[in-house]
Structures are given as C-alpha cells and as structure tokens.
Amino acid sequence: MPLLTNREIAETLERYANLASITGENAFRSRAFQRAADVVRDLHEPVIALMDRGDLRRLPGIGSGIADAIETLVRTGALPPLDALQRTVPATLLDLLQVPGVGVKTATRVYRELGVVDLPGLLAAAESGRIRALPGLGPKTEANILAAMEALRRRTGRFLLGTALPLARRIVADLQGTLPAGSSVAISGSVRRMEETVADIDLVVSTRVHEAIPATVAHLPLLSGIVRHENGSLRVTTHAGIPVDIVVVDPSVFGTALIRATGSADHLALLPEVLPSAPTEEEVYSRLDMEWIAPDLRLGLGEVMQAKAGTLPTLLSVGDVRGEFHAHTLWSDGTATILDMVRSAAERGYAFLGVSDHSRALGVANGLDAARLAAQRQEIEKAQRATGLRVFASCEVEVHRDGLLDFDDHILEALDLVIASTHSGLRQPRDVLTERLLRVIANPHVDIIAHPSGRLVERREGGDFDWNRVFAAAAATRTALEINASPERLDLNHDLARRALEAGCLLTINCDAHSTVGFDALEYGVAVARKAGADPDRIVNCWPIERIEAWLQTRQT
DNA sequence: GCCGTTTTCGGCCCGACTGTTTTCAGTCG
C-alpha cells in the first residue's frame, strides 16, 4: 500500500480543487478542498496518525465530506471525485494554470472556446493569434502568455530541495532499519550539496552483501519499484515521482564512493581522476593532502584550493542562529497562535522571535490595519511574559508601487522592528523598481528587507533590480537583507547574498514561518548563507540579543 | 464542502494591478 505523505495528500486535494474550478464545479466546494490542502500541508504529524485517532474531522476546514475523501485516498491511493472528473476532462488542463497570467477563467475559456487541453495546445493557440480573437482577451494578453510560456520552457523541471531532502531522509531511515547488519546508507548528490533544486535523490549504500540490496530496496514503502539495475547501481522511483539512484559499494571504499557521488562536476574536475580508496571521506581528502570539505561547499568555486592550503573558512551552522525576525501567526495568514509560535521558537533553542504579520494592503492574507496591529501588541507582550523569550513586535509592511510603505512613520516608529516587503508590481522596469526599493531602504524605520528579489524557485523570476545600487544603499544604512529560508523562495540566493556581503551588507536568515513546522526550513537558509561564504558576524540573527537591540536602537534615530 | 456569540441555512479573504475596456473582469498574492 502506498504510504502517502501529508504533502502528497495536499497536492492531490489541490489538483482536485483546481480541476473542479476549471470544469465549473461549485467554487466554494473547490475552495474548501484548497483550504483542506493547505491545512494538511501544515500539519505537525502524519495524516494517518490523525485518522487512527479519529481526529481528522476535528481539523479546521475538514468536515465529514473531505475527511472521507482523505481516508479513501490514504487507503486506496485514489481520490474518487478527482478520478471522476478526470474521466470527463483531460488532467493536462491543470498544466495551463502553471502559466503566470493564466487563471481558472482563462483556462476555462481556452478549453471551452478553443479546445485547448494542454500546454502545447495553448502555445499553438497563442502563436496563431487565436487568443487575441477571443472577446475580452487582446494582443497584450496573448503576448504575455507567449512570454510566460517561454519562461516556463526555461524551467528545469527539477524538484525543490524542500521536497527532496525530507523524502531522502525518510528513505534513509527506512533503509537503515532493513539493511543487513554492518551495512549503512548515506545521502549524496545534489541533495547533500543542498542545491536549491535537484533532478533526483542519490544514495550510497555500504555493505558486504551486495546481492541482498535489490530485494531490500524493492520492499521500501516509499518507493514504487526498481526501474533499472546494473553494475552495482539501482534506479528506483518514489511515489512522488522523484527518481532515486542508489550506488552499492564495499565498506572499504565507502568514503571514495561518497565523494564521487556528492561532488558537483566542477568540484570533481579539480580532484585527481583516480581517487584513493578509503572507507571515510576524511581519509580520502587527507590522502590528497586536503582538509575535509563540507558537502554544501563542493561546488568547484575555490574550495579545493583552500582545502589544500588549509584555509577553508569557518562558516556558520544552524546552531549559530539564535532566533528569527520574520514569522506569521493567525493574526494574518499564519496557522498558529502567537503563543504557539513563540513556544515553538523556544523549544528550538531560540532566544528571540519577531512576530511580523502582513500589513493591510495584503488583504488576501488578512493583513493588519493600525487598530489590529495595536491590539496584537498586547498579545505579543503577553507571550513574551509567558515564555521569557524576547518577542519583537514587528510587521511585514507592504511596499506600494511608488515606494511608499503601508503605514505612516509614527506607526512604524512604535514597532520594535520593521520588515518591508514587495509582493506586487515586480515587473516594473529596472530603474523604477530600483528607485522604489532605495526609497524603502532610506526610511530609517525599516530594519529588514524581506525576500528582496521576490523570486519563487522554478516558478517566478525575481524583479530586475540594480543590485549594485541596492547593496550599496543597504550597506550604508545598515539595513539588513533577508535570506528567506523557505524552500520556495531562497531569496536572496547564494550568488546575490555573496555580492551583498562583498558590498558590506548585513544579512538575516528567516524561515518566514506561517506555522510551527515552518521553522524547519532554517537549514535551507543556512545552506544559502554558507554557499555565500557568510561569517556569523554578518548575520544579524546570529548576534547576542544585546547587540541586536543596540542595532535596532541606532536605526530608529 | 465547511461553518456557527449571525448556529443547521446562507454565507464564504480582499485590494492592487493589468489589460481590456468606456465601466469592468481576471489574476495575483
């Protein structure tokens, strides 16, 4: 029986919600499924555990109808209403929604009126001028669709690290429990290098009984069967569709195999063609007269030379992060109370947390107006008293198209910490976009610029900013730039973060958590900072609380 | 389909922007 993860269940519910809205089902029904998908995605424990306790329909937004559907999905692997819809309408219709600018309405129209059922069909319709011929759609819409599809074509089709890494860890844990005694398994490849996207999951198994491995692998619940098996390597695939490559080696050469399977092509090109045979990575590197190189740095960017010279930098690790500034709660679009978020931060060993819900302009996220912001402050102070954690009263303030902020200065001034962020108008031309952000950086009340580029990994390119000017301004005003750790964003990315550091900027790593599980993303942000070569001294949330308070004080004047 | 100090029916997240338009529909977050 397939063991579905919460994420897979959420994706199936979401597929149904989207397909249902295209085919004209009750909009509220499809929104209910969408909401249920969001709830399932943010759960702290497996859906199956809730099912066992009979607690599924206690969840907000999940009543008896959707609970039944989820139970059937978990039991049989199929969602009956989705199957029913797919018998009447091609599932490829869902692909149309991936095109930015194409929503449910447009997808429905090109399907009904032009017979478009998939992306190639949409491209053909746009290229032949049939889209502009539809009433209400014009040449600009058609041109936008063509441009968006070109951007879509450039996408790699790779999987997000945030999907692949947790899955890889579960497979490793399952394998570890079933491998013959004396065997072990490790993650390698781009997942171990913490690349933002990966094509597959690579594992290396060390064992003396090679012949036992295929059968062991074939019985893993997360995997759906062996695709290929040759020369001591196996290719299988997960239920989520991610290929898994498993190399099987003797323990005596485990270190060698791990280095081969982990290094990027550029890193490996700088190593000798024939590596020394050894059971551990440390021994291989040592026999090459090099220090051991952390996997996320094996990119061929000078780390090999540094390892030979013994000058590898000391980089920050997850444990260096003492707290976060950017987190959401039920007050806007988060799914946990302030107290739950603060307690979760405390459990993770944090010394402080910034509560920064959206401002009013982000209406869909239930953004706060001045009155609610003031009311929220009481609850923030209560949470601070109850936990002993320093809780910063903050706000993720929307940047308008002209660079004005969503709140007046006197409201910003009263906050402990101000985060500014841009969610719309990211397609403005470079000089307009840059001036807009410079105006925000120049505001002395603004302490942090959240997800500066606005990119979404594999889904949306960031804004076309003049980064040299942005970094120079941020460095001059000591405004911190965020490395947003959410695997969907990773913004700044490691290239921009490195340039920001070179320009003298302060950085901050935040999960932008919308639930207590959201804090799990920290390691992705830390990996970005490490690749950028960040010293903890330049990451504001690695500082002791007194230094942070002092930084905030100097900024308010 | 979900939900209820509006409680078993009748509502259901909202404002800005864009492109199409002469007053609005669709998308996005």
Defining key terms:
23 helices, 7-stranded parallel beta sheet, single chain, Beta Polymerase, domain 2, 13% strand, DNA polymerase, domain 1, alpha/beta, globular, 5-stranded mixed beta sheet, 3 domains, DNA-binding, TIM Barrel, 557 residues
Question: How would you characterize the overall build of this protein?
Answer:
- The longest helix has 18 residues, at 161-178.
- This protein has 557 residues and is of the alpha/beta class.
- It is globular and about 70 Å long.
- It has 3 domains: 6-153, DNA polymerase beta, N-terminal domain-like (DNA polymerase, domain 1), CATH 1.10.150.110; 159-309, Beta Polymerase, domain 2 (2-Layer Sandwich), CATH 3.30.460; 318-556, TIM Barrel (Alpha-Beta Barrel), CATH 3.20.20.
- Helices cover 43% and strands 13% of the residues.
- The mean pLDDT is 90.
- The protein has 23 helices and 14 strands.
- The structure holds one DNA strand of 29 nucleotides.
Strand content: 5-15%
CATH class of the largest domain, named Alpha Beta
Radius of gyration: 25 Å
Silhouette: globular
Structural class, by secondary structure, is alpha/beta
CATH superfamily of the largest domain: Metal-dependent hydrolases
N-C termini distance: 62 Å
Q: Which residue ranges are poorly predicted, with pLDDT under 50 across at least 5 consecutive positions?
A: none
Sheet with most strands = 7 strands, parallel
Neighbour order of strands in the largest sheet? 8-9-10-11-12-13-14
The total domain count is: 3
Write down the CATH topology of the largest domain. Answer: TIM Barrel
